[in-house]
UniProtKB/TrEMBL annotation, chain A:
<feature type="domain" description="4Fe-4S ferredoxin-type">
    <location>
        <begin position="370"/>
        <end position="400"/>
    </location>
</feature>
<dbReference type="GO" id="GO:0005737">
    <property type="term" value="C:cytoplasm"/>
</dbReference>
<dbReference type="Pfam" id="PF01180">
    <property type="entry name" value="DHO_dh"/>
</dbReference>
<comment type="function">
    <text>Involved in pyrimidine base degradation. Catalyzes physiologically the reduction of uracil to 5,6-dihydrouracil (DHU) by using NADH as a specific cosubstrate. It also catalyzes the reverse reaction and the reduction of thymine to 5,6-dihydrothymine (DHT).</text>
</comment>
<dbReference type="InterPro" id="IPR005720">
    <property type="entry name" value="Dihydroorotate_DH_cat"/>
</dbReference>
<dbReference type="GO" id="GO:0004159">
    <property type="term" value="F:dihydropyrimidine dehydrogenase (NAD+) activity"/>
</dbReference>
<keyword id="KW-0408">Iron</keyword>
<feature type="domain" description="4Fe-4S ferredoxin-type">
    <location>
        <begin position="337"/>
        <end position="369"/>
    </location>
</feature>
<dbReference type="GO" id="GO:0051536">
    <property type="term" value="F:iron-sulfur cluster binding"/>
</dbReference>
UniProtKB/TrEMBL annotation, chain B:
<dbReference type="InterPro" id="IPR023753">
    <property type="entry name" value="FAD/NAD-binding_dom"/>
</dbReference>
<feature type="domain" description="FAD/NAD(P)-binding">
    <location>
        <begin position="143"/>
        <end position="430"/>
    </location>
</feature>
<dbReference type="InterPro" id="IPR009051">
    <property type="entry name" value="Helical_ferredxn"/>
</dbReference>
<dbReference type="Pfam" id="PF07992">
    <property type="entry name" value="Pyr_redox_2"/>
</dbReference>
<protein>
    <submittedName>
        <fullName>Pyridine nucleotide-disulfide oxidoreductase</fullName>
    </submittedName>
</protein>
<dbReference type="GO" id="GO:0051536">
    <property type="term" value="F:iron-sulfur cluster binding"/>
</dbReference>
<dbReference type="GO" id="GO:0016491">
    <property type="term" value="F:oxidoreductase activity"/>
</dbReference>
<dbReference type="InterPro" id="IPR036188">
    <property type="entry name" value="FAD/NAD-bd_sf"/>
</dbReference>
<dbReference type="Pfam" id="PF14691">
    <property type="entry name" value="Fer4_20"/>
</dbReference>
């Protein structure tokens, strides 16, 4: 068993799996259960400023997207920050941290964009003994209408300003949680970095309407016939999150800025992918909300076994894929592949044929007895047949060796790397130096 | 419960009413909505799907399954009924394991096909609880006689009615439905489904059913040809092949189809007598239906004796497994020689067989097994076919459109040449003949 002990910003936890700031971490009872189940850390559900707590709707807070067999693919929520008194939360945080000194306890905070508000809450959070804070600049629903959450995260100047206040009035690590509801994640990440953030965490939820009731025409979740956009999370948002994590990891301006990866982590494999793309740890919510806290045990065993197999340590995995994330313009245009159908494995469903014939390049033929074959002279290697084939490994993309004839172009495969920047069709191509 | 499975001879009430009710309940319980959604999701929506090719009625199976998965089972049912108006019965009785489900690519992939039959039942049950979905074209004034209210006749009649023709169905039995009503194991079509299906089908209008009206008796084919614009014959195979063994006339020796019909028509299963030791001669679906039901009625031992090897049995693998699961013994390569007993059967004498140079032959080695009831399930034959029709291989000769050798007369289903003798094949033939009749008379 590879040791999964995690060190994120100097905060130690027995594994890199933290529960994200969300309903599962709203109170002591849940957090104790989470730690007993094995979670390495929690980010306590977002605290607001002193005073009457926020109120939540009294109808449904969640909407859902299902896959087959009602498998939860994504959840959308319109729940606000904690609706319990600040003092209650602070006391519970202190109690839990005292009892679980080896676990990470981070406190998420969302107060108005005024220095006084932050100055007021930060010392009280510090007193709990929590290991750090996370600034909630991400929630896209409800609180954003009051100038908080994603309303801050969408303005890099505000991010930088508030981060700076926090670094000034709080002496433990400050993590800035980013919203994906922006056009380019690098700008808010740079702002956090410039403000002195110790790390960024992302993604928060994606603004969303999960569905529309086609009888009463209300968006879901429906509150008395009306709906409001919520924040979308779960497996469905993972690809968006992976890209945003990678963009920050490879941005020279934020290089080395620690990242806590969030967004659809459901299995150890998802977590490993976030780590490879530069996340120092991961935060999980929807998987726990769907299956309960026990899921972490699969994540722990899976990641540990994977690292065993690879002979890698956890720090060696972190960022391992970052050098492989590049711009399109640098992709090797002399890398030529063709689809190959393993006739032994083929179950003759014909989905590759329908997909290619109707929507792609007419590069698969179908015989009267349902034998499907790739026509190399038409195959552009788009991969759609591989994607739609229900049999794993039946259709593969095979690389043509240098010198082999590409039947589609009528030219042999060039041995050397060449990309768009030097391609003759590119008006801006820079000819190789003479 | 007056008797037990060990009561000698033929006896009723071998099992309690509760046991009988449980034994004769739906073989495959209907799906609920969630089960249907899960099952539907397994369909790959194949291109030019092999299951459709394998369906004698060419139902667009991937389309109807997708319609189920998107929450529109009525649309799914319409997809089914447009091709097969008896889709409800076929969902229950089709040997899907040798048709659509055998062709399913998931059968090839993992030995577990999409459960097309049960999905079809989910869709058709949903729609059959609602008003009939089809309406008739403008009346044509043409009249067609259909002989036989079995699957072929009903499918033909419905399609003709849809095209605006008026149809009169003549059936020999008191109830319409043919083998659906009289010839299929009870546990495959519970709760009077066959009659409910006929009632639903004729809601389209323009179809009159004359019961107890076998052609040849009260109505002759010539008279029908004279009176109607066209005649369709779907009269099935009324005759049963003989055993050709000594003692065939002893008490306790019966036709399996008769036993199955009695079961289907019984109001009280405990009133039906069944032997302590039952032997069924034959290897097809009828043999299995009779054997399994004899066992379910409480027979102590039931044996299917089939004269050829197991690989030649007409009953599908699924049916053979069902028989084995219910405790029926399948004895192959054994042919009947004689039924022994003083008046009533007590034993059956069988001879082992082998494949000789000149075909199947007895080995000369015989043995006896206890048998106080013997069911003959060695095939049916055309009986009482109207004079003047050309026959071929003992069946009414028809072309690809169901036309017989006689002008204005079409035929389909088991009585006609071509196709397997299945409900679904009969439906296809009745439907296609209707289209040809329509093209001819309209």
């Amino acid at each position: 068993m590879t040791d999964l002990t995690s060190d994120f910003l100097g905060i130690k936890s027995p594994n890199p799996f933290w529960l994200a700031s969300a309903p599962p971490t709203d109170k002591e009872y849940n957090v104790r259960r989470a730690f007993e189940a094995g979670w390495g850390g929690v980010v306590w559900k977002t605290l607001g400023e002193e005073g009457p707590p926020v109120v939540n709707v009294n109808g449904p807070r969640y909407g859902v997207i299902y896959g087959a067999d009602r498998r939860v693919l994504g959840i959308n929520n319109i729940e606000l920050i904690t609706d319990r008194p600040l003092q209650t939360n602070l006391e519970e945080i202190a109690a839990v941290k005292a009892d679980y000194p080896d676990r990470a306890v981070i406190v998420s905070i969302m107060v108005p964009c005024e220095e006084a508000a932050w100055k007021a809450i930060l010392p009280r959070v510090a007193e709990t003994g929590a290991d750090g804070i996370e600034l909630n600049f991400g929630c896209p629903h409800g609180m954003s209408e009051r100038g908080m959450g994603s309303a801050v995260g969408q303005v890099p100047e505000y991010i930088e300003m508030v981060t700076r206040w926090c670094k000034e009035h709080y002496d433990k690590p400050v993590i800035v949680k980013l919203t994906p509801n922006i056009t380019d994640i690098r700008y808010p990440a740079r702002a956090a970095h410039n403000g002195g953030a110790d790390a960024v965490s992302l993604i928060n939820t994606v603004s969303s309407i999960t569905s529309v009731n086609l009888d009463n025409f209300s968006p879901e979740p429906s509150i008395d016939g009306k709906g409001s956009h919520g924040g979308y999370c779960g497996a469905a948002v993972k690809p968006i999150a992976l890209n945003m994590v990678a963009e920050i990891a490879r941005d020279p301006e934020t290089a080395g800025l620690p990242i806590s990866g969030i967004g659809g982590v459901t299995t150890w494999r998802d977590a490993a992918e976030f780590l490879a793309l530069g996340a120092g740890n991961v935060q999980v919510c929807t998987a726990a909300m769907t299956y309960g806290f026990k899921v972490v045990q699969e994540m722990i065993s899976g990641l540990s076994d994977y690292l065993d197999d690879k002979g890698m340590t956890l720090p060696e995995l972190i960022g391992r894929s970052v050098p492989n994330v590049t711009d399109w313009q640098y992709l090797n245009l002399n890398y030529v592949t063709k689809a190959r159908i393993d006739q032994e494995d083929c179950i003759k469903c014909g989905r590759c044929y329908a997909a290619c014939e109707d929507t792609s390049h007419q590069a698969i033929t179908m015989s009267a007895d349902r034998v499907f074959e790739v026509q190399d002279d038409e195959c552009v290697a788009c991969n759609l047949c591989v994607n739609v084939c229900p049999v794993e490994g039946c259709i593969t993309m095979e690389e043509l060796a240098p010198g082999a004839m590409d039947q589609r172009t009528g030219k042999p495969v060039e041995p050397d790397y060449a990309n768009w920047t030097t391609h003759p069709n590119n008006p801006a191509s820079r000819p190789a130096a003479e | 419960m007056a008797n037990t499975p060990f009561t000698p001879g033929i006896a009723d009430q071998r099992l309690s009413a509760e046991d009988l009710a449980r034994n004769f309940a739906d073989l495959h319980a209907p799906y609920d909505g969630h089960e249907a959604a899960v099952a539907a999701d397994r369909c790959y929506f194949c291109h030019d799907a092999p299951c459709v090719t394998a369906c004698p009625t060419t139902i667009d199976i991937p389309l109807f399954i997708r319609q189920i998965s998107t929450g529109t089972p009525e649309a799914a049912a319409k997809t089914i009924f447009e091709q097969n108006i008896l889709g409800g019965m076929c969902a229950r009785v089709c040997p899907t394991e040798t048709l659509c489900e055998e062709a399913c690519v998931r059968e090839a992939a993992e030995g577990k096909p999409v459960e097309i039959g049960r999905l079809q039942r989910f869709a058709t049950d949903t729609m059959m609880a609602k008003p009939h979905p089809f309406s008739r074209a403008a009346p044509t004034g043409k009249r067609v006689a259909v002989a036989g209210a079995g699957p072929a006749g009903l499918a033909c009649a419905h399609r003709l009615a849809m095209h605006g023709h008026d149809v009169v169905i003549f059936d020999a039995r008191p109830k319409p439905g043919g083998l659906n009503e009289y010839g299929i194991a009870s546990y495959k079509t519970v709760d009077g489904f066959a009659q409910a299906e006929v009632d639903w089908l004729v809601q389209i209008g323009g179809i009159a059913i004359r019961r107890d009206a076998a052609i040849g008796d009260s109505v002759g084919l010539d008279a029908l040809v004279a009176e109607f614009d066209a005649v369709f014959l779907g009269i099935g195979l009324a005759g049963v092949n003989a055993l050709r063994a000594d003692g065939e006339d002893k008490g306790g020796v019966r036709d399996a189809v008769e036993f199955i019909a009695d079961l289907r028509q019984a109001d009280d299963l405990s009133s039906l007598g069944v032997g302590r030791n039952v032997v069924v001669i034959g290897g097809g679906m009828t043999a299995v239906d009779a054997a399994v039901q004899a066992k379910l009625l409480g027979a102590e031992s039931v044996t299917i004796a089939y004269r050829r090897g197991q690989d030649r049995m007409g009953a599908s693998g699924f049916e053979q497994d069902l028989a084995a699961q219910k405790g029926v013994r399948i004895l192959c390569n054994a042919q009947p020689v004689a039924v022994h007993g003083n008046g009533a059967a007590q034993e059956i004498e069988l001879e082992y067989t082998r494949q000789g140079a000149g075909g199947l032959e007895g080995t000369g080695e015989t043995f006896r097994i206890a048998a106080d009831q013997v069911f003959k399930a060695i095939g049916q034959r055309l009986d009482g076919a109207p004079q003047g029709l050309a026959l071929e291989g003992g069946k009414i000769q028809v072309d690809a459109n169901g036309r017989t050798s006689m002008a204005k007369v079409w035929a389909g289903g088991d009585c006609a040449t071509g196709g397997d003798d299945l409900t679904v094949t009969a439906v296809a033939e009745g439907r296609d003949a209707a289209e040809d009749i329509h093209a001819t008379i309209a």
